[in-house]
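quick q for whoever's on today - can somebody do inverse folding on this one?? i tried earlier but teh output was garbage lol. tokens:
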């Protein structure tokens, strides 16, 4: 959050584990089986050489330098790092009550968020697309090596209409436009409440100015917001089009939160490139998405948890009911699909980030799932174009690709369950050519 920025950027280096320097360094994975995420097969035993932050060579008899660190694969699986394209780095680390507590300490909250970021990386998620919230200071701290965490594609503050899904005002807080005072959520960098073309343009450009790699708008009702029913369509075509134009001028794209066909069709016509959620879509709308090349970034939601308040549990019911049908229809229609968790305000749930991948087995084979959470998710990240914060290819183990790698005990194609227990089965985790976990 903006008021946390100085605290976060000055976090002691002790928060990060020691990392192998990437510049000029070499790692050799000897006798590993490389997961081909495109074909869904494990290759024969081979060697993989990492130089700096890139995969330099793959093949038998690769010769490293005398100073290279050698990791014995012993026939284990080497695969790309996992990617979560709907992650909320701040909101997943903290209960809502802690964020709103009058005695909340920036130092305490910052330390919690930083620690959760480290745990995310140690679960094997080497990249995330942050789908909205205060994020820029955390990303800067990670990139500077002050905090350990995944690569972050930041969206910045949610952009929402008044009474939209991102209108996080408390009951006593009144409209900034009429009464002149920003809400607490706006001051914290969590959201922009923007109405009309001009305000939407300003909100988008503010996020781009801060370093957003893509823009997140709320185009329909949500389950974690108090004011808007699920069926509500949010933002006019002109407002959505304004956001798309501003993003396209910067070479990037808009993603929207939406469940219903009406909201999604309006967003598609406005030029939106990615739909988040979409569990209430019909066949016609999914066919339109496939035709236009619009992504569906879906989640595998469980019916409920004890942490959800009664209002949120009730609002989620139709979304849960529509989930199985919509994902099956989207796959049949040929919609490009990505996956993320979308955990909010339930920190205890974060330990199940990997396990939620397994819920995709209702619709996809293990090979399809592994491709989705690596290669396909990386393709979605690449939509940011020149606004992407990191140069290089992800989601593959290929020469020239970025060295985000997992050495896995077991064959996830035959037993997908191995990725659900990273503490036991991820022997080595490498991000950007640096070893961040070595339990070998």
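ok took a stab at it. sequence:
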């Amino acid at each position: 959050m903006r008021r946390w920025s100085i605290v976060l950027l000055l976090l002691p280096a002790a928060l990060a584990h020691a990392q192998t320097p990437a510049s000029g360094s070499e790692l050799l994975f000897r006798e590993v089986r490389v997961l081909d995420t495109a074909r869904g097969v494990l290759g024969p035993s081979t060697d993989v050489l990492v130089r700096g932050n890139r995969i330099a060579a793959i093949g038998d008899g690769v010769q490293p330098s005398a100073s290279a660190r050698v990791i014995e694969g012993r026939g284990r699986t080497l695969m790309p790092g996992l990617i979560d394209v709907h992650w909320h780095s701040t909101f997943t680390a903290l209960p809502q009550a802690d964020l709103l507590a009058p005695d909340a300490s920036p130092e305490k909250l910052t330390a919690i968020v930083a620690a959760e970021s480290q745990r995310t990386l140690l679960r094997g998620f080497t990249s995330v697309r942050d789908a909205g919230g205060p994020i820029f200071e955390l990303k800067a701290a990670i990139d500077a090596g002050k905090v350990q965490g995944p690569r972050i594609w930041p969206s910045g503050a949610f952009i929402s209409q008044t009474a939209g899904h991102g209108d996080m005002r408390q009951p006593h807080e009144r409209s900034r436009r009429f009464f002149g005072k920003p809400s607490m959520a706006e001051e914290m960098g969590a959201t922009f409440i923007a109405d009309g073309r001009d305000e939407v343009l300003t909100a988008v450009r503010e996020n781009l100015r801060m370093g957003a790699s893509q823009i997140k708008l709320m185009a329909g009702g949500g389950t974690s917001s108090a004011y808007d029913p699920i069926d509500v369509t949010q933002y006019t075509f002109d407002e959505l089009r304004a956001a798309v134009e501003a993003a396209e001028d910067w070479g990037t794209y808009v993603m929207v939160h939406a469940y219903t066909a009406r909201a999604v069709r309006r967003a598609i016509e406005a030029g939106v490139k990615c739909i988040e959620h979409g569990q209430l879509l019909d066949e016609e709308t999914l066919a339109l998405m496939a035709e236009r090349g619009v992504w569906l970034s879906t989640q595998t939601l469980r019916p409920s948890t004890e942490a959800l308040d009664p209002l949120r549990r009730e609002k989620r019911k139709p979304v849960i009911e529509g989930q199985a049908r919509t994902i099956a229809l989207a796959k049949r229609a040929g919609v490009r699909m990505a996956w993320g968790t979308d955990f909010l305000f339930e920190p205890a749930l974060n330990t199940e980030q990997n396990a939620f991948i397994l819920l995709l087995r209702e619709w996809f084979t293990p090979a399809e799932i592994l491709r989705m959470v690596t290669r396909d998710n990386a393709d979605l990240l690449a939509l940011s174009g020149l606004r992407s914060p990191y140069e290089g290819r992800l989601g593959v183990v290929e020469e020239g690709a970025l060295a985000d790698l997992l050495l896995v005990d077991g064959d996830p194609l035959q037993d997908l369950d191995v990725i659900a227990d990273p503490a036991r089965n991820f022997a080595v985790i490498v991000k950007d050519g640096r070893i961040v976990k070595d339990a070998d």
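fwiw The chain has 14 helices and 18 strands. also The longest helix spans residues 310-333. so keep that in mind when u check it
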